[in-house]
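[User] Once you have settled down, look closely at the record that follows, and write a paragraph about the fold.
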Amino acid sequence: MANKKNLGEMSFLDHLEELRWLLVRSTTAIIIMAFLTYFISDYLFDVIIFGPTRPTFFTYQFFCELSHKLGFAENICITEMPFIIQNTQMEGQVNVFVWMCILAGFILSFPYILWEIWKFISPALYEKERANAKVFIFVSSLLFFLGVIFGYFVVIPMSVNFVATFTVSDIVKNQFTLESYMGMVKTSILAGGLFFELPIIIYFLTKLGLVTPRFLRKYWKYAVIIILIVAAIVTPPDVVSQTIVAIPMLLIYELSIFISVLVYKKQNKELNV
């Protein structure tokens, strides 16, 4: 029978030292990837980051074609973006350039960061569990990248469309600051990526006994309400857009419950053997 590695072999200070080097190596990986994005910075900003500010963006075109097929109103199609993005600070564009490259570096180096985290926690796992490192990194990375894609292609364009078309009066013209737009991009992408990690988080919380399937089912209705509120905040005030945002989030929560059930049953089976 596999036993856990003796954690007593390392002192508290030794664990802190390991954690320090984990942070150093992870930060180094982020900086290296951020530096590499410098060579594609024109494409990163012009095509990717500012893509959702153009009517020709993939998401807008997709929903326009979908509306035609479903016979919806023509006003779903976006022909213009009635706003401009302006820089109001002397060092504003420099700060944005640096932080967006760091964000890109974090996203690109995420699998490596997961590997470092796995190496740090693996001594506390069973031998059989340590053998699943590749599965853990692959699944966690896949979920994170799916969340990033969801944030970029769904949350950001819907948010941009909503704030661009919302107005309290025709007298007021939308002129967004560069910092506010970039803040929305960073929040949407990171929130999407981290939220899609929920099944992995639930997996470990269930193994630690901090969460049970019964607990997740008990508060299911509250989770649905929170998800619907978030979907309503980040989308235009129409049912179709809110549903498109809410459904993937609900599926992720349901997947988390399913994973919790599997882990809980497996633990009970092992205790009864």
Remarks:
- The two ends are 13 Å apart (CA to CA).
- Confidence is low (pLDDT under 50) at residues 1-8.
- Strands lie at 83-86, 174-177.
- The first strand starts at residue 83 and ends at 86.
